[in-house]
Amino acid sequence: ETVNLLETDEDAAETGRARKRWFSVDEYQDTNPLQERLLELWLGDRDDLCVVGDEDQTIYTFTGATSEYLTGFTARYPSAREITLSRNYRSSPEILALANRLLASEGRRKRLVATMPAGPIPAIRRFADGEAELAALVASIRELTSGGTDRGTAPGTAAGAAPISASEVAILVRINAQIPPIEAALTKARIPFRVRGQRFFERPEVREALRLLKRLPDSATGPMLAHLLEERLRLDMGYI
Hints:
By secondary structure, the chain is mainly α. It has helices at 2-8, 10-19, 33-43, 68-71, 73-76, 93-105, 130-146, 179-188, 204-215, 222-237; strands spanning 23-25, 49-51, 87-88, 113-114. The strands form two sheets. A two-stranded parallel ribbon has the order 1-2.
């Protein structure tokens, strides 16, 4: 609707352009055609624009996003100054070495430079299905927290290494839909965890708990209420 308004109502378009002198767009590699068109309408005939992005981090292609707007930026804006940021302040040299090998295998000249201290060598594992992956995930965490010989994804680490706290283990996912199966597996294995990045009352298990809570007897209060809810949740989620 906004794009349609700006395309059909010049007064509205001019009002919007008058309010902003220049634009800065982060994560530009995840821009889709509709967003790009809106940016063009906001700009008008100006070129006061700065974009930041990495063509190798495009993750929203399912919404129509493409890195072509980023890689073709200087072609559309010939006067733009391009600044390459190759120093990485997040990952260990071992992780960046793997990334650089992958880029080189595709004939890319891009090369990331490490600034962090050395860390474990990353390992890539394949599993037959999701259940096998979850089982391996649980096993790796148990190895790490018990000081086992595997040390999770750190091949070559000496046997009998000191155990680490579960709070030092992180599981990264791309989308929230990947979280519930992992939570279920960790709960069943009695491994403590905390989820970040998702609102508490939007989580499926919280909504389910609220639904079950309404179905419990009105007479249940205090410890009895907590006990009945826990029992109902465990039965419904298949943990006992």
